[in-house]
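TA notes. Do not distribute before section.
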Amino acid sequence: MKAPAPKYAANDGVIAAAQAALGDMLVEATDLVGEVNLTVDRARLPEAMIALRDGAALQYQALMEIAGVDYPERAERFDVCYMLLSYTRNHRIRVRVTTDEVQPVPSVTAIWPVAGWLEREVYDMYGVLFEGNSDLRRILTDYGFRGHPQRKDFPLSGFVELRYSEADKRVVYEPVQLAQDFRNFDFMSPWEGAQYVLPGDEKYVAPPPPPAPPAPPPAAKVEDKPAAAPEAKGAPTPATAEQVKEADDSVKPVKARVRKPKTSDGPEDTGIGKASPHAGAAPAESDVPQEDAKKPRKPRAPRKAKGEGEA
C-alpha cells in the first residue's frame, strides 16, 4: 500500500530560482542526497527569508524548524539551519548561516513569530545569540545552568549538580562529585587481539618452548607395483587393461563355510515344537488308547447352585 501523503516535488529548477531571487545574498547552493541547501549571508538573513517566502517561483511560506550544529575546529563554529516548507509547491529546503559565540544572528521573529521559541532553544543548547529576539532566555535547562549542553566541548558530567538541602530547605548547586574517576571505555575485545596489555598480564611469564621433535627416519623405498583395480568394472581408472585382468585373476573365490545346507523348516531344525498338538506318536507308557487320545473331550457341565431344582 502506498503512503497516503503525497511525494515531495523534485528539486529541478529550485537552485536556479533561488539564485535569481537572492542574488549576492546567496553564498553557496548545493543539492545533496535529494536535499537543497542554501548558505546565505548572515547579516542579510531576514531579507533573504522574505525573498524565499514571497518569490513567485519559490513560495516557502512556513518555518518548520531551527537547528544548530557545532564544529569546534572552525573559526565560526556554529551552523544555524532553518527548515522551510512550501505549501503550494510541496517542497522543502534548508537555509544555513554560520556564526560563533560572539557575533549574533538576526532574528526572524518579525517574519515568523514561531521563531521566538526555536531561537531560544538554539541559544540554550549552543549559546548562539539572536539579535532582535525580545525574550532570549533559556527554555530547556534549569535556572542558573552553566554552559550549553550540545556543544562538543561540554563535559559529560556537567559543571555543577543540584540537590535538595534539608538544612537550607531549598535546592542547592554544588560541584560535581563522582563516586569513581571517569573512565573511557575503548570496547576493544581482548579475544580478537587487543593492542594493549590487560591488567595482570604483565606478571605472566611465558614458558620455555618445547624441544624440537626428532627427525623422522628416512622412508623405505617402495617398489613400483601395478596399479590397483577399480572398485567396479567399467569405472574410470589409470590402470591398463592387462593390469585390470591380472588383478581380477588374482582374486580367489571365497567358499561359504556351511557344514549342512538347510533343506526344511521342521521342528527338529527350528526347535519351535510340534506342528500341532496331536502330531507325533503318543507316549509309550500312556494307558489312553490312541483313538481316544485323538478325540476332543466334551466340556464339563456346570454345577447347579444350591436350591435350584428343589420343590
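Switch to the second chain here.
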Amino acid sequence: MAELLALAPHRSTTATLLARAARERGMGVTILPRGAHPAPPPADTRAHYYGGPHFADTVAGPLGIALLEPGDGWLDALPHGFTGRHVRCVPLSEARRIPGPLFVKPPTDKSFPAAVYADGDALRTPSGPQGDPLVQISEVVTWVREFRLHVLDGEIRTGSQYATFGRLDAAPLAGHPDEPAVREFARRLAAAQAETWPSGVVLDVGLMRGGDDAGDARWAVVEANMAWFSNVYAADPARALDVVLRSAGPGAAVRARDARFRRT
C-alpha cells in the first residue's frame, strides 16, 4: 500500500521538514491546489495531511482523511494538579464581561492570537460565522520554559523546547537539562489522562510561575494541539511525522478509541 503526505498550499519550515522525512521513508508528497477540491487518492494509496484547519476542512473529505484533535474543553477539564491555574471555556460574549487581567485564546485552533487582555472589554476578537464562539480564558501566569511533545499512544515520540519567558527559544528535548523533569511530568499526565486525548497528539507543557511570580515554579500543561497543524521546532522531524500520520490519516483506519476525537 502506497503512502501519501498531502500538504496545504501555505508552506512552512515544518511542512518542508516533514516532507523531507516522508520522502526519506518512501512516501509520496504532494502540495494540494489552492481553491480546488483534490481528486480522491488511488485505491492503493493511503493519504495523510499536514496543514491548517480551515483548508483541511475542504480537502479531508475528498482525500478520505480523518482529522484527530483534542476536544475544545480538554484543558479546562484537567485537574488543577496538572494545569496549576484556573482555566475555562466560555462564549465570547461572556468573556467580554469578565474583569481582568486575563489570558484569552481559541480552545484548539489558531483563529485569533492568544494574548493577555486588561479586561474582557478589551477583547475585540470578531465573532465570525459561528456567531458566539467559545474562547478559553485563564488567569495570567509566567511560563519560564515551554516544551512541545509529539505523543504517540501515550509516549513521547520526540520533543522540543520552544520558548523561554514567552520568547521563541527552540532546542531539542533530547539532552536538555529539563528532559528528565519533562518526561516525568508527561509520564504522570499520561498515566492519568491518556484516554482523554487522541492517540496521536501534541502536548505543550512548561515550567510555570504564578502571575505574581510568588512561590516555586511548577510543571503544568500549557495546552494540547492538533499534531497535523503543529510546529516541530527543534524536534526530530522523522519522529514527529509518525505522530502526524496517526493524527491525519485514512478514515477507515481510525481506531475505535480515537473515533470521538474526529474533527467534524
